[in-house]
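Researcher: Before we compare anything, I want clean individual predictions. No alignment, no superposition, just each chain on its own. First chain goes here; please echo the sequence and then give the structure tokens.
Model: Echoing the first chain and its structure:
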Amino acid sequence: MKPLLQVKGLNSWYGESHVLHGVDMTVGEGEMITILGRNGVGKSTTLRTIVGILRERKGQILFDGRDMMGVPLHKTAHAGIGFVPEERGIFATLTVEENLMLPPVVARGGMSLDEIYELFPNLAERRTSPGTKLSGGEQQMLAMARILRTGVKMLLLDEPTEGLAPVIVQRIGEVLKKLKERGMTVLLVEQNFRFASKIADRFYLMDHGQMVADFPVAELPDQMPMLHKVLGV
């Protein structure tokens, strides 16, 4: 599988706080990768550093063969990386459809509105509703859908199921499986281990700002003792 994202020796800081300590990881084209780990070990920081939100960083980030370390934050999407933060970042005063139409198309292959509404029926029903009227699950779907319209090659998701009802978690899982069928590459940070185990091709386990294990889903039963120790699952 051709590597789409390669991260080597990645370090990053929040001011004086050194958070990432030499992160190494590779994501192949079309893979769905989940980063597991307890709260505070650097999972979300990894995504934010890759995207370029954290500029105090050292190491190497290659995306589709391109060195991303010098790419300005506002050019990240144009390079092909879409980021959905945990706080979702939708425009609350705009309607669903206005939110979807707002981001620019950065590459060919982005989903049309009809495709978005087929993938997210909840959004089709709420297309004229402002963001303030959406449930947490609908806001999460909208945040994902907005990125999918742009034509990015890779989707970074930070805790997409956090605080959501089980039925919505199940729906998001179904959406991610359909995106994988379309060839979308996804890098996911997720606390819900059982949810992640149903959708991921491969896992990275993170602890104290480093990747301490990397294994495919087929090896999950053999890795459970380690996961119990590190995650407490």
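Researcher: Okay. Second chain, same rules.
Model: Second chain and its structure:
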Amino acid sequence: MKQRKLEMVLERVEGFVSPNAALEQYATPAVLAAEVLHYAYMKGDIMDTVYDLGCGTGILAIGAKLLGADRVVGFDSDAEALKIAEKNAEKLGVDVEFVPSDIRDVSGHANTVIMNPPFGAQVKGSDRPFLLTALKVSDVIYSIHNCGSHDFIRKFITPAVITEWYTTVFPIKRTFKFHKKDVERVEVEIYRIMR
């Protein structure tokens, strides 16, 4: 599936009904999800088992399944978000497992983790448990972070390594009362990490 086609399909994924600011529940836009997933696909990393840590309403997990992963599991601590994720997967005709779990309790093994963890804007360091769990359960990690995170991530993940990274834009729609613009375009960095 080409990236634009994937984006068009993922635009049908519904977002959060009542997003939680403390959990930084921003819906990953279809354009960004398709970009990251297609990049991982072209690297040969969307295969076997793929985990989506902090899957929210399931856009990355569903996209991984659409691109041919054998098994996809999305983990999230928000039961309401997982209900929406299950409906989204059913609507798009894909079989994805959604598991209610604190990120620290995720176990098993995946070939690849694809995740959009909290940036730490509300709770400093909230991306760290996601990185630690991803390093524990997978061989390859794709993760979205604030611009300027490279040095921190490189040190934090050692002895794992960043094999590639690039900068792109994350358009965040007005979600919470404290947002002043209809869409805020935030520069983010996409990392490919290997253990």
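Researcher: What stands out in the second chain?
Model: The CA atoms of residues 37 and 43 lie 10 Å apart. Additionally, The mean pLDDT is 91.
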